[in-house]
Amino acid sequence: MTAKILQILKEITSLFAYGKDNRQILSKIVTLLARRLDCEVCSIYAYDEKSDRLVLAASEGLNPKVIGKFTLAPSEGITGHAFTKNEILNVLDPQRDPRHVPASGSGEEKFNSMLSCPLVVGGRKYGVINLQSTASKRFGEDLVELIRSLSIQVANIIESSKLFGLLSVEPGRAGAAEQELPVEKVLKGSPANEGLAIGKVVFLDRSYDDMEIAQERHDSETKELVVLDKALAAAKKETSEMGERALSMISEADASIFSVHLLFLEDKSILDKVRGRISEGFTAEYSVKSTCDEYLAKFNKMSSEVFRGKSADLKDVMIHLLKEIKKAKGVLQEAGKNPPKGLKYIMAARELLPSDILRMPASNVSGYICERGGVTAHFAILARALDIPAMMGVADLSRIREGDNIILDCHAGNIYINPDAETEERFREVIRTRAGAGMESDAAEAFTRDGVRISVMANLSLLSELPLLKLSGADGVGLYRSEFMYMIRDYPPSEDSQLKIYSRICKACGKRPVTFRMLDAGSDKPLPYLNFTEEENPSMGVRGIRLLEGNEEIFRAQISAILRASVSSRARILIPMVSSLEQVRKVKSLVAEVSASLSAKGVEHNPAPEIGVMIEIPSIAFSLDRILPEIDFGSIGTNDLMQFFYASDRSNEKVFPHLSFHDPSFLGLLRQIGDAFSKAGRKLCVCGEMASDPLAIPLLLGAGVSELSLNNRAVSRTKRLIRGLSADAARSLLDECIGMDGAEQARSACRRLVGYWR
Ligand code: PEP
Ligand code: MG
Hints:
Strand order of the largest sheet: 7-14-13-9-10-11-12-8
CATH class of the largest domain: Alpha Beta
Number of strands: 23
CATH architecture of the largest domain: Alpha-Beta Barrel
Bound molecules: phosphoenolpyruvate, magnesium ion
CATH superfamily of the largest domain: Phosphoenolpyruvate-binding domains
Helix content: 40-55%
Shape: globular
Low-confidence stretches: 165-179, 332-337
Strand content: 15-25%
Structural class: alpha/beta
Radius of gyration: 29 Å
């Protein structure tokens, strides 16, 4: 999903960590840009306020001897004009341009075209970036657009890293050798969310069943009982703190999980049994483990699912208690699980599930790493919602040990194990300077060049994202993944607690539409309180709207909360995993029934929300004639649609590369869906991760998609991109790509139109 422009930015960001000095970093940036943009010359001029001059600070392609020496007044030369007028100049034959000032000794005479682009951050001008080429033609429009987007970001990065202080760099330091870590200390992964993090690694304890505790006898009952009491007190304190932290991090949470944990830690019958075993002569840890095993066996025999679900909680609590006992005995050294104030740890596991993320105190997690998972896995989606750097597909996870200090560089896809102090400090500096870097905002409507309005909305998973929604200028919420709210609890959220959450979203959106997706549980998002039976293939099992049967009350409460929350809002209800007309009719009649019952009780509500379907199961593309008359809109969930279309598990990093939306077969499916919606006059949205890939946008517009829903951070970039495209050209591009031999050709065609580089 990451476009080349992002790739370039990531590469630039990662240069900061390893460059020895500013001048060297700047020189690496120009080299990288020249290579990635395929230009013979790339130079950066930095504006020096003290001398009021533009200084040639770095160049790839010009004579290195003039770097740091050649300067211009801010109004001199093509470079100075671009700087003063704050505009991009694309000049053919610059030597003949009246504004030209020769940079003698630079070797620039042989270049026949020049592109000068100012580097501006928040209205403040920092310098100019120049591209030069021997080709006797102006730089293409694509490249101009690209450098425009890139310059803003590059200026941001450079500014926040204080790189323009380079003029004061002592010459002696320039050119110092770059320090590299030994390869065996660096692991590779695929970033699921961008960012940098530093912290001690803590492995997720999900392995109660693997814990081996020998049946050992103690030599002092009193000592053992003191250890138990100390461990219980520590576990209770930590559990209460975790509850508070979760509440402050995730507004959807309630204290239920943690209060259940506390109940176990205070349960008289459990504790009496444990103490009894200690009196019989067994160690505290064996007494706890054997008592817990006994309770688990009892729970598992009970017919009630709720009780069986409690096993997981009991295991959670006991793992915690056993660790505290070991700590009290000095067996276990503190490995970062309770980091000193202000420090955060990096959570690692073979596989991380959304519930793992939601149930842990995210406030002291600075990053996630795991072996399994693709970028559209729900774990990745949540990491983005919480804005926590995350890396997946880390093949050699076993080389990291609990307590290792690591740097997670999710720009470059690197994990550094126990780096030296200097390297760590360099990354810390980048983290400090990037912390204040804001998100671009764009609240204006986006029209294509030929006047087609495209609504760019945001995907929302947690209330903590609402401030971002306001900042990004999104045209509404195109997908609210309501299921995360259900996953934080041990029982379904009440209608009233849902009402509070939905009302906050509606209020934040004002007149902009809010798309509430009905509970989409199952697969990697199971709910302990729903009747899930063990399934061989849960992603193709009872999930999404298939759960309606047998759980109608849960859906009824959700619909009622949505209708009540959206009295003065444009609410839309989106049905997940639809495959039949009957499912749509069933939901519509449920909405009508709930509305009638609210009216009968005199409860104010929205009686007519728009109803739409998720297009995730390929067969629905062949039933649209029947379904379209029943609905107001559709939303393509490309994450699931692609996994089912290509029979490739979206959370399996091994097959993830096969999920290309550029393949002509998938594009043909898109065209078919788009045509059906256009013919029926219904709105078509795309809310899967495909919508946030710049190289997908022309194809989606070409298919007649009129709404996109994506991560808040991609909103402004997407609006900008749309404004540079024409719907007509996009249509032709899609047709052209459908007729191509493969994904690679189609991707190149998109790249040419969009001007983004991969
Ligand atoms: C999708 O399948 O594309 C989608 C948006 O839903 P989710 O990722 O939550 O399954
Ligand atoms: Mg889906």
